[in-house]
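Margin note: ligand = 5-O-phosphono-beta-D-ribofuranosylamine.
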Amino acid sequence: MMPSITTLDRPSLPLAPTACIRLGVLASGRGTNLQALLDAASARRIPAEIVAVASNRHGALALDRARRAGVPASVFQRTEFPARAAQEQAVVDFLRQHGVELVVLAGYVPVLGATLLDSFHHRVVNIHPSLLPAFGKTLHAQADALRHGVKITGCTVHFVTSQVDGGPIILQRAVPVLEGDTEESLSARILEQEHQALPEAIGLIAAGRVVIDGDRTRILPAE
Ligand code: GRF
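Resulting structure:
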């Protein structure tokens, strides 16, 4: 059964904790966040199973990670479809075939359109390497943080809406920006936190503790 994420505009009790949430992960690149989820799930640190992985890029390392873990992995490249909606529909069909309940964007580059977002309303989360709303809508959030001279940055896990990098925030982790940091060193420090934050956010959702309240979320206390 599809777990429901409570929204206060449709008041109802928060969902009972799911025994095991079925995740579909979309990734375009090396897939270290996917790996963090695979590791957390197989070690039973989160009540989740990664049941499908999709990419828009042939050759994405994330696909190898999925296959090594025995997870079905497919590529849906934009140029192989007549329009974005058709590509997204193929991704939706793939995710549905595998009974996906929650979609995780783990370094997925394409901006999602209505086809995917409407099919998984309030059930798509993303991880972004900055403290949103700072340094959103970019693939260079870490470089932008350095350029602006901020002293603290971090990562954000949030629900995906049609507002790019603007959906309700689930959790954030801060990291210091150190003197002498390069884009690489800062990115590595943030990535370490991403690998903690993403599984933690999934754990909160699976536990039924995340309530969407308009533009924000509320995190319910543990039982
Ligand atoms: C991460 O920095 C994530 O925040 C961003 O894309 C990167 C993906 O890294 N959205 P990886 O492919 O999970 O290693």
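The chain has six helices and nine strands.
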